[in-house]
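Field notebook, page 528. I keep forgetting to write these up properly, so this time I am using the form the group agreed on. The chain and the ligand, iron/sulfur cluster, are recorded exactly as supplied. Prediction of the bound pose follows.
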Amino acid sequence: MSASYPLPQRPESGGGHLAPLRFPAESTTPNSKSPVRWLTDDLLFHYQRCSRRAFLDLYGNAVEKAPPSDYLAKLRQDSAIHRSTILQEYEPLHRPLYPKGDWAAGAKATQDLMAQGVDAIAQGVLVADSAVEGIQLVSQPDLLIKQSGWSHWGNWTYTTIDIKLGKKPKLDYQVVAAFHAYVLARVQGMWPETSWLALREGKLYAVDLERQLLKLQETLNGCLYDLRQSEPPEVFISHSRCDLCHWFSHCYSSAKEEQHLSLLPGVTPARYVFLQERKLTTVEALAAANPQQLAPLPGFGEPVAEKLVHQAQALLGNCAIPRTFPHPPHTFALHPADLPSAEVELYFDIEAAPDQDLIYLHGVLVIDHRTGEETFHALLAESPEAEQTAWTQFLELVHTYPTAPIYHFCPYEAQTVRKLGQLFGTPDLVIETLLTRFFDVHKSITESVTLPVESYALKHIARWIGFDWRDEGANGAQSICWYNAWLETCDRTYLEAILRYNEDDCRATHRIKDWLTKFAQPFWYPQA
Ligand code: SF4
């Protein structure tokens, strides 16, 4: 896998012979167990995010694939709307006609249109040999746009545009755009000047082909190699990329079964490579490791090394391990001032729709220890226009309890309060004074305790403590879908589901804060 095939040459100008992709000699024999024939841009895109995903998409048992969540369905719908809006700008468009999935027929129909010199082709198909026997590269750019220049067909060439919903030209978008340019160059005998990305808000981004072709070469090399193996790449659960993947249940069961180290917070793919080199690939082995031997490794350092070993020990013992400072010996890493208790405490959680730049709910749970009362306040924008009213109501509520600490989980609430203050012209002094009352329970717990959890997200910690949400499928992404469904249907069931979920988030934060306070007591106030 370390060897690489030559980078396709980019002619200076006027077209020229394009070097075919070549494989390292040791991997040019097709693997009879791996019948990959078409390497599509879609496959390459997913390969960049997870090599296992690309393998399973090709060879996995479709029964084990989960249907798309409401949130994923919403993203796909938003993406389709964005694509169709951009495509309208290029009308009149020509579309190749071919039976679905028949890439050879699609390529022929597209080349016929290109040979005619039509101005714009939507969802054309470009096919080129990969120089690996039996595997062809398939590119489906959203648009092929005619330009001046010289190609096989005469004094015109084409360039590609891919339409993406994202605001930024992410690296994986750019590599796929370079792939389109490469296959297009093979088809028309001329490199396009660039390959374009049409992003959200009408931004057009020109991909630096010189740069991205290097990355493309590396990615194609790995992809063609991995997809010719008989077994999928090793599972590695990373919640940020796996949570929306349709193979998640399948991969998660495998990871659980093998007690894979990726289920330990802090074990990143980069760190895992070093752990593998040291044969520390089981929870038991990592629990017995010496943090001082891990600390010098790149990307580790003392705190990370200690945390990883503690993480394995906590999991083995199903126990919480306090983090203490060595000087003076065994000082607990959390100070009482970081987690104050008061007669009245507020627990705060926001619901937002980032795609609409909208904060639609400020949920505040008021715990009055004097009376034992617990009251949940939902300061809700029932329509996007009511966002400012909900903000004002939130300010009024928190000023009703002017000295009560406000607990939240992760920095988002504090950041959003600052942002809304600017947006709605709330005086800086009001915001800064308010923020002195904010305490981030996530920060406190992650800095002071190692827990036997897979992640330090609210749900994982709260569930370990024994708290559970009333609606099993509730989460932030689902809440956004419910809010959109409320706007579309005016069915209050959706709003009720959002409020229940948000209240449970506030209650979970409360339970974690209480648990941590009790856990810290012996360190803060040791018995003589
Ligand atoms: S769940 Fe994660 S590891 Fe499995 S295929 Fe999807 S992204 Fe890859």
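OBSERVATIONS:
- The chain has three domains: 33-226, 259-319, 340-521.
- Residues 492-524 form the longest helix (33 residues).
FOLLOW-UP: compare against the apo run.
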